[in-house]
Amino acid sequence: AWHCGETLPYSQHVADVPMRWIGSAKRIETSLRNSEPLPLVALEAPCLLRTVATETLDRAGLSWRMAFSSPSLGGIWAAVAAGLGLTIRTDIGLPASVSAMTPEIAGLPALPKMALVLHQKDAELDPVAARLADILLQAALQALPRDERLKEVA
Fold first, then answer.
1. What does DSSP say about strands 20-24 and 11-18: parallel, antiparallel, or unpaired?
2. What are phi and psi of 122, to 5 degrees?
3. Rg of the chain (C-alpha set)
4. Mind listing the domains of the chain with CATH numbers?
5. What residues have CB less than 8 Å from 51, skipping those under 6 apart?
6. How many other CB atoms are found less than 10 A from the CB of residue 61?
7. Does 46 sit behind a cis peptide bond, omega within 30 degrees of 0 on the bond before it?
8. What confidence category does residue 147 fall into, taking pLDDT thresholds of 50, 70 and 90?
9. For strand 38-43 and strand 64-70, is the pairing parallel, antiparallel, or unpaired?
């Protein structure tokens, strides 16, 4: 799970993953020129990444508008790929129809890293739950971008 700031017992920190501005892979023009509000695409509220995006833009003094919201990640990817706006996510699981943007080039504010954690119900797990936790942990580490994976293994 993405860490939301709430400390839970029996949680294991997996990695700190950079959040990225994500736009269409076709590089449809989305800019902050002419004081136009930046069109955002986000999951429906409440959403941790939606909050980070809007608060980051507010702190930077940049205007934004919610161009599209969806209850599903598939809807977010389709809207961003179609050029309806930008979203924030991590590099994990990006479809080919979207791509991460360099914030400085696009005139966007830098985004923080987000902690990925593995939560367990109890301190000691039964063998089946322990195996599942190990499978999830390994899958999460494999899904990390290569440079982040090397940091976490080191």
1. unpaired
2. -130, 160
3. 17
4. 1-17+117-154 (no CATH), 20-111 (3.40.190.10)
5. none
6. 7
7. yes
8. low
9. parallel
User: What is the predicted pLDDT for the residue at 150?
Assistant: 47
134 torsion bin: left (phi>0), alpha (psi -120 to 50), beta (else): alpha
- The two three-digit tokens of residue 128, written as one number: 């089946």
Per-residue pLDDT for 34 more than 90? no
**How far lies 56's CA from each of 27, 109, 133, in Å?**
22, 7, 33
- Scan for tokens 């800019």, then name that residue: 31
- Quote the mean pLDDT of the chain: 86
Taken in order 115, 121, 125, 127, the sign of the CA dihedral is negative
Nearest Cα neighbor of 99 from 114, 77, 68 is 77
Tokens encoding 102: 């360099």
Q: SS3 of 125, please?
A: coil
Residues 25-49, mean pLDDT to the nearest whole number:
80
How big, in percent rounded to 5, are the helix, strand and coil portions of the chain?
35, 25, 40
Whether 15 contacts 126, CB under 8 Å: no
Q: What is the pTM assigned to this prediction?
A: 0.79
